[in-house]
Amino acid sequence: MSIFMPRTTVSTSPAPHLPRKLRRNAGFTLLELLVVMVIIGLLAGYVGPKYFAQIGKSEVKTAKAQIDALGKALDQYRLDTGHYPATEQGLQALNIAPADEPNWQGPYLQKTLPQDPWSKPYQYVSPGEHGDYDLWSFGKDGQPGGTAESADIVSW
Known about the structure:
- There is one protein chain.
- This protein is mainly alpha-helical.
- The protein has a domain at 48-154: Glycoprotein, Type 4 Pilin (2-Layer Sandwich).
- Helices cover 36% and strands 6% of the residues.
- A hairpin with an 8-residue loop joins strand 1 (123-125) and strand 2 (134-137).
- The longest helix has 52 residues, at 30-81.
């Protein structure tokens, strides 16, 4: 009794199931790769500026939200003590009790005093020119005035 086993061959060519003529052309040409790279570059050139513009807007929104939260903490300080912290005491009075303030019930912030989204301190003056206090950030450029992302973000 003999067992008949068919002979199998192992092909080392890149695509054995394709005809011989097509096997030679089974890759991408340099021209095809360049066209794809140009298309990707055009898409990145169109989408990139719109994406980075949104990042700048989010930093401004973050600064506005932080100024609002600091304003609420300042209002709570005033309710407890009867006045806003003096300019000399600054915003640090929200977390650290001033030596001459017996009615201080803080800390008024859950975390440490935040810096603006551009890693600069918020500016505080009391009494302010626009109200009981003025609280602001100079924006991205860190200078008074400016436009767009560099504009001052204020509490008034």
